[in-house]
Prior knowledge:
Mean pLDDT: 95
CATH topology of the largest domain: Aminoglycoside 3'-phosphotransferase, Chain: A, domain 2
Oligomer: single chain
Bound molecules: adenosine-5'-diphosphate, magnesium ion
Number of helices: 11
Radius of gyration: 20 Å
Helix content: 40-55%
Largest sheet: 5 strands, antiparallel
Order of helices and strands: HEEEHEEHHHHEEEEHHHHH
Amino acid sequence: xxxxxxxxxxxxxxxxxxxxxxxxxxxxxxxxxxxxxxxxxxxxxxxxxxxxxxxxxxxxxxxxxxxxxxxxxxxxxxxxxxxxxxxxxxxxxxxxxxxxxxxxxxxxxxxxxxxxxxxxxxxxxxxxxxxxxxxxxxxxxxxxxxxxxxxxxxxxxxxxxxxxxxxxxxxxxxxxxxxxxxxxxxxxxxxxxxxxxxxxxxxxxxxxxxxxxxxxxxxxxxxxxxxxxxxxxxxxxxxxxxxxxxxxxxxxxxxxxxxxxxxxxxxxxxxxxxxxxxxxxxxxxxxxxxxxxxxxxxxxxxxxxxxxxxxxxxxxxxxxxxxxxxxxxxxxxxx
Length: 335
Ligand SMILES: Nc1ncnc2c1ncn2[C@@H]1O[C@H](COP(=O)(O)OP(=O)(O)O)[C@@H](O)[C@H]1O
Ligand SMILES: [Mg+2]
């Protein structure tokens, strides 16, 4: 492994976590790429490799998108709650240091834990894996919904508003004044629904396809709120992937169906139809947001593709759907 020099404050954080003896030789280290909101390192300790993630005050996606570094604390807490609900669903947490906004976790090598996003981009769309993603998210939602005291560990309304509701739904409302009212209503419903522990960034770029099932990374947006958000957020990516790798469209739609069905089967904290009636309009809003919000997906660049998303999403928002299949079918028919 080629070695980079980790910053001294990161080493100090590891010492505070009890993972590095003060004064011990600097371990071989490599900066990992791929993230936009954190510094991420692999460090090879005598006991084996670990992964250290430190939150940055400013996200690399947009100059005006700031996020408090305390989110690292909630990411660590999400990892603990997820592991308790669904062993293996998150990397094992090894430590967290409040003062630097850093956490340490087990290192999951790419060879055994490829990124789902890369598999999807290559057109490898496996409904069985998508179903496992849906089942795992539902299991985490179900376990935490059954333990409402968990809410007190996630006082993150302000962070969730700043890094999810504002840049996606409310920014999109500003870009589409004639859909602003419905987008604001969707955001308000999401903000007001408090049922379970939400990951907040269930995107294929944050899901590793591990040998024993999906492993979720990057829970910086963890929030006690509406589980429909995670479902809609992830399904949105499966719709968008149809524009990235059009040849695999049928596979992506099959993944959409498999994920939605497996998730639905795991809903035990409220009527499934009620959750779906929140998830479907949210999906339509997030779909438009990935073109006209503050965090557009990087692979939709052609104006014709953007317009296709706008046409479908705007029509859906004019008469908000109450079932996910309505969104999926409207998109499938447009392709
Ligand atoms: N525990 C881990 N083991 C191995 N690689 C990891 C681990 N955590 C993160 N990574 C790598 O770092 C990338 C970014 O991590 P992520 O937590 O998503 O950070 P960001 O918030 O910056 O997006 C991942 O896509 C993955 O490649
Ligand atoms: Mg990430």
